[in-house]
Automatic annotation (TrEMBL):
Residues 367-459 form the Putative collagen-binding domain. The keyword Signal applies. Residues 1-19 form the signal peptide. Gene3D superfamilies: Glycosidases (3.20.20.80). This is Collagen-binding domain of a collagenase. Pfam families: Apiosidase (PF13204), Collagen_bind_2 (PF12904). The keyword Signal applies. It comes from the Bacteria. Keywords: Signal. InterPro entries: Apiosidase-like_cat_dom (IPR025277), Collagen-bd_put (IPR024749), GH (IPR017853). Residues 36-363 form the Apiosidase-like catalytic domain.
């Protein structure tokens, strides 16, 4: 017997959250798409901003006390969606978890191993206690179409439906699950069309949950978001893209978000895998160390610009955390630190600041509006993104590189304005006070205490919005 089985009783490490965070609170109901189709909300209309983290190997590589450590850390930083895979990528069918369990007998999706799924149950419960959603991937994509990786391909339309139905029945009463099919694979590649398999799995989940499930699909990297291949699938509720790690800096994800928002029927969209912090830049087919690693600034540029372009949220990732690299594991793709040393990297804090910033104003009626920037929107690393709300009571502009900016104030309704700067790296603010309103307002970027990038916020004074005191 694996000695880790005896380290803790089944829920000893997992049941600390109620004491740490107060009573759990899910009275808002299940997640759903907003009426306009662009964002997410709870059943009672409370808006929801998706801030995800990629923890792909969570069920497969961590022990219970490690999972508790990870979830506590992510909760404290403001994450609310943890993306994890049941049938994991890294030899997940044959290599057991930390308790000696594999997920399936004979690699058969219709023969689930109860002991393995008891750990999945516990993680979902632990996340619920911390008011975290699990973005649950039933399988990594190589189990449907190998393309690369270990596979093997084990799914057909018949067993995919039954596996989806089994999972759906098991978790139909769990309000904190967002279902994510796919797993780093396109639905169509070359002459292979795997849509029937994914459709069957999705229908199994929906039938078992009485249609209450919210579903998306994690696609491979590149410009082909789900809107290009499966947008019209009725089971797909949220589009996803992966701006990824292999195309260098400043992939124009804002253009892809804009494209997705214009599709009919309207569906929310988000980047579910932008460049990971501390991931080697352009590592395929071979990494040149001169390219270096993506840093927190790279993370900020991509996450802010996708959200300001109109995404319903965004997912952060760290290269060591998705794989949970430790002394027990062999590193993948030039990871440079153990996962426990990566928990408090700057980008993980900074995406939490992004969520706080968005939630500091009414955000369910955000409208991307590039006319706010009166010329000089820039390209690649200099590209600026802006949005306002439908009532024209406030606007925000993300400026990735320091420079003066001219703002078209007609984007807001008539009346006095108040402005402030927000530092995405530190969450510090600088009050500009009342602004003299003209057709075009020129502002000089701050220099003291600010880094490369910042956000300009302008509020209509009559709205009475305070400048928030952001938690850091």
């Amino acid at each position: 017997m694996n000695p880790l089985r005896t380290l803790l009783p089944a829920l000893a490490a997992f049941s600390i959250a109620t004491a740490a965070y107060g009573q759990t609170n899910w009275e808002h109901g299940r997640l759903q798409v907003t009426r306009d189709g662009h964002y997410l909300q709870y059943e009672d209309g409370t808006p929801f901003f998706w801030l995800g983290d990629t923890a792909w190997e969570l069920f497969h590589r961590l022990a219970r006390e490690e999972i508790a450590q990870y979830l506590d850390n992510r909760k404290a930083k403001g994450f609310n969606v943890i993306q994890a895979v049941v049938l994991a990528e890294m030899d997940g069918l044959k290599r057991p978890n930390q308790y000696g369990d594999i997920p399936l007998a004979d690699q058969d999706p219709e023969k689930p191993n109860e002991s393995y799924f008891q750990l999945v149950d516990e993680v979902i419960t632990s996340a619920y206690e911390r008011q975290l959603f699990i973005g649950l991937l039933p399988t990594w994509g190589d189990k449907v179409t190998r393309m690369w990786g270990g596979g093997p391909e084990i799914f057909t339309t018949e067993n995919a439906y039954r596996y989806g139905s089994w999972l759906g029945n098991r978790y139909k009463d769990r309000e904190n699950i967002i279902w994510i099919l796919g797993g780093d694979r396109p639905a169509i590649h070359d002459s292979v069309d795997t849509r029937p398999v994914w459709r069957a799995m999705a229908n199994g989940i929906l039938d078992a949950t009485g249609g209450q499930a919210l579903l998306s699909y994690h696609i491979s990297g590149g410009p082909n978001s789900t809107s290009r291949q499966i947008h019209d699938e009725p089971w797909l509720h949220v589009n996803m893209m992966q701006s990824g790690h292999g195309s260098g800096h400043d992939v124009p994800v804002w253009e892809w978000i804009t494209r997705d928002r214009e599709r009919a029927p309207t569906k929310p969209t988000l980047d579910s895998e932008p460049n990971y912090e501390d991931h080697p830049v352009n590592p395929w087919p071979a990494w040149d160390p001169k390219n270096g690693y993506f840093n927190d600034y790279d993370v900020r540029k991509q996450t802010y610009r996708s959200v300001f372009a109109g995404a319903c949220g965004v997912t952060y990732g760290h290269h060591s955390i998705w794989q949970f690299w430790s002394e027990r594991e062999e590193k993948i793709n030039h990871a440079d630190r153990y996962w426990t040393e990566a928990l408090d990297r700057p980008g993980a804090f900074q995406v939490g600041y992004l969520r706080q910033l968005i939630e500091s104003r009414p955000f369910k009626d955000r409208v991307p509006d590039q006319t706010i920037v009166a010329g000089g929107q820039g390209k690649k690393g200099e590209h600026i993104r802006a949005f306002r709300d439908r009532r024209r009571s406030y606007l925000m502009i993300y400026i990735p590189q320091g420079r003066d900016i001219t703002v078209n104030t007609s984007a807001l309704k008539a009346g006095a304005l108040r402005g402030w700067w927000f530092n995405p790296a530190t969450a510090e603010t600088t009050d500009l006070g009342t602004l003299n309103r003209t057709g075009e307002l020129q502002l000089v970027a701050p220099t003291q205490g600010f880094g490369k990038d910042w956000v300009l916020v302008i509020d209509h004074a009559a709205a009475g919005y305070p400048i928030p005191d952001f938690k850091r």
